[in-house]
Amino acid sequence: MRNLILLGALLLAVAAPAHGQDKLKVVATFSILGNLTAEVGGEDVEVTSLVGPDADAHTYQPTPADVRTLASSKVLVSNGLGFEGWIDRLAEAAAFTGARIVASRNAPTQGHDPHCWQDVACARRYVANIGAGLAAADPANAAFYRKRASAYDVRLAALDSWVRSEIAKVPEDRRKAITGHNSFRYFAAAYGVQFQAPRGYSTDSSEPSARDMANLIRQVREQKIRALFIENMTNPVLVREIAEDASGVVGPRLYSDALSRPDGPAATYEELMRHNVGALVAGMQRN
Ligand SMILES: [Zn+2]
User: Fold this and answer.
1) Going residue by residue through the chain (287 aa), what tens digit of pLDDT does each one get?
2) d(CA 61, CA 58)
3) Rounded distance from Cα 91 to ligand 1 centre (Å)
């Protein structure tokens, strides 16, 4: 009798693993997407980000370890819009047959510029896509994912309003900034800040010519732009040179394409946006 009860308990344990024990393995291509996915998936998912904190997804080279990680995962979340030029090669190498979620699907995108998450409205679309994608990949927990996605969406809506109210504190003619890598076009369009960058929006594009630099320095002087910023994953030398030549000030580092490390100021997407907006507003007000 005792053995039968034990056997029954064992069978039950096998048939219905405790909540959270059998986590859905999900791979996200970069740290920001990894955080959005973890927010939606909660304790039901185990998220691995391929491109980690402070690293550049544009120029990333997948490793054999990435191939193994993806091969043992059920879901792959990518940004799309050409951000991860290496993703199909990696999926093929891993013989990946799981579910694929392209976070930017149906987002209000600007051509092939991949940095859509810099507009919180776009990040909310990512979250909706991730919620629907996880629900489809793991139907047993669909209600859980939907609930978490909508709770997170409420927080992101509040974040969007906060960004608008912070930018509104800066007089309109001072809403200008210089960055090292043109990844703020979505932010610019959504929140009405003008960004200029000394090079194209891909970190692997070529260095600017001496003439481009001279033009930009003249522009910075003429327009009295005081807010110059370095991004966490790009070479700071260019922006420092411009700041020196145009007697501007280099502000705190902006987080554009990657989170900070967990002990840094942008360990989550929400912290990243709050940090960037705080730095931009302080820099643009300085005059
Ligand atoms: Zn970028």
Assistant:
1) 455 544 444 444 444 444 546 899 999 999 999 999 999 999 999 999 999 999 999 989 999 999 999 999 999 999 999 999 999 999 999 999 999 999 999 998 988 899 999 999 999 999 999 999 999 999 999 999 999 999 999 999 999 999 999 999 999 999 988 887 778 999 999 999 998 776 543 454 456 677 777 777 787 788 777 788 877 766 667 777 777 777 777 788 899 999 999 999 999 999 999 999 999 999 898 75
2) 9
3) 22
Helix/strand/coil for 237? helix
E-strand ranges in the chain read 24-30, 45-51, 75-78, 99-102, 176-179, 194-196, 227-229, 249-250
- How many angstroms does the Cα of residue 250 sit away from the middle of ligand 1? 20
Ligand 1 centroid to Cα of residue 177, in Å, is 17
